[in-house]
Automatic annotation (TrEMBL):
GO terms for molecular function: efflux transmembrane transporter activity. This is HlyD family efflux transporter periplasmic adaptor subunit. GO terms for cellular component: efflux pump complex. Residues 12-24 have a biased composition (Basic and acidic residues). Gene3D superfamilies: 2.40.420.20, 2.40.50.100. The lineage of its organism: Bacteria, Pseudomonadati, Bacteroidota, Chitinophagia, Chitinophagales. Residues 1-41 are annotated as: Disordered.
Length: 317
């Protein structure tokens, strides 16, 4: 029994010593793991001081403000129609020839009775203004009545874009004289702001504003263009790439992560100004030109974070 107790007593300390050695062995392993952690990989940028412009983008639809309606001048049959949709016509250009129904009924009977009478019963219908034929209602052989619409001519000189302007944005538009229009194919046109229509759409609360353009190419009606209107211009202001700016779920607080040494970044609350496509204005605080701001790897970092700064080549191998 004494031998057994001696064995247990001897085994107990041996086991405890073994546990102590195990704990001692595990500690260096943990310290080794901490030494391997070099921080979150990030890339950095610096603030720029340049001009930022904030634009409003609205839609404008092409339209002809003035249209002329070509109408029949008698009851009869259209003998010829030298017209087609899209054709450009001048003032006084013949468009249709119309034979009255009386002339078709009588035929050559009058000439047989009296050859001195020059009666044909054929009328020529001419264009009363220059422009494009945007609508054709009849063709050769059709019977038409006096005053019936035959075609529609859109006056080329009345071509404009009608801007759908929300009423609350009037101060940003009506004080300007020129705007830039961008067509769906990327073509850019300079436009001059003209008349403001005296009515507002009851549903959308938008008001039509006439924009006149000067172009040598023909633009179809009902084409939707984008209109860029300068809302705010900030010369020589402090800005950062949009990716550098962080915010909360409600987008009420904004901050950036600033590098304070080679391996540590801290949260810096900021106040933002206007935004462009890829940059954002920083109103406060004022950063030094040498301050390094995290631009990638910054999302989800704590207020103070260990980081590893990489070059763009390392971040995008």
């Amino acid at each position: 029994m004494l031998a057994a107790c001696g064995a247990q007593g001897k085994g107990g300390p041996d086991k405890a010593e073994g546990g102590k050695d195990s704990a001692t062995a595990e500690k260096p392993a943990g310290e080794g793991t901490d030494s391997v952690d070099e921080g979150t990989p990030v890339t950095v940028t610096t603030v720029d001081r340049n001009s930022l412009d904030d634009y409003i983008e609205l839609n404008a639809v092409s339209a002809f403000l003035q249209k002329s309606y070509v109408k029949a001048n008698a009851n009869g049959y259209l003998q010829s129609a030298d017209v087609y949709p899209g054709k450009y016509v001048e003032v006084g250009q013949p468009l249709f020839t119309l034979q009255t129904k009386e002339a078709r009924s009588i035929g050559n009977s009058i000439k047989i009775l009296d050859s001195t009478l020059k009666f044909s019963g054929v009328n020529t219908i001419k264009a009363n203004q220059h422009g494009y034929l945007t609508q054709l209602n009849h063709q050769s052989g059709d019977y038409v009545q006096d005053g019936e619409q035959l075609a529609v001519i859109s006056d080329r000189n009345s071509f404009v874009f009608l801007l759908d302007l929300p009423y609350e944005l009037r101060p940003f538009v009506l004080g300007k004289r020129s705007v830039e229009l961008i067509l769906p194919d990327g073509t850019k046109l300079n436009g001059t702001i003209g008349e403001v229509m005296p009515t507002v759409d009851s549903v959308s609360q938008t008001q039509n504003v006439v924009i006149r353009v000067s172009t040598s190419s023909a633009i179809p009606e009902n084409l939707v263009a984008k209109v860029r209107i300068l809302k705010t211009a900030k010369p020589n202001t402090q800005s950062l790439p949009k990716a550098a700016l962080l915010t909360d779920e409600t987008e009420s607080d904004f901050w950036v992560m600033k590098l304070i040494d080679s391996t540590k970044a801290v949260k810096v609350p900021v106040k933002k100004g206007i935004e462009t496509k890829d940059r954002v204005e920083i109103l406060s605080p004022q950063f030094a030109p040498t301050d390094k701001i995290l631009v990638t790897g910054n999302y989800g970092l704590p207020d103070t974070a260990k980081v590893k700064v990489e070059t763009e080549k390392e971040a995008n191998p």
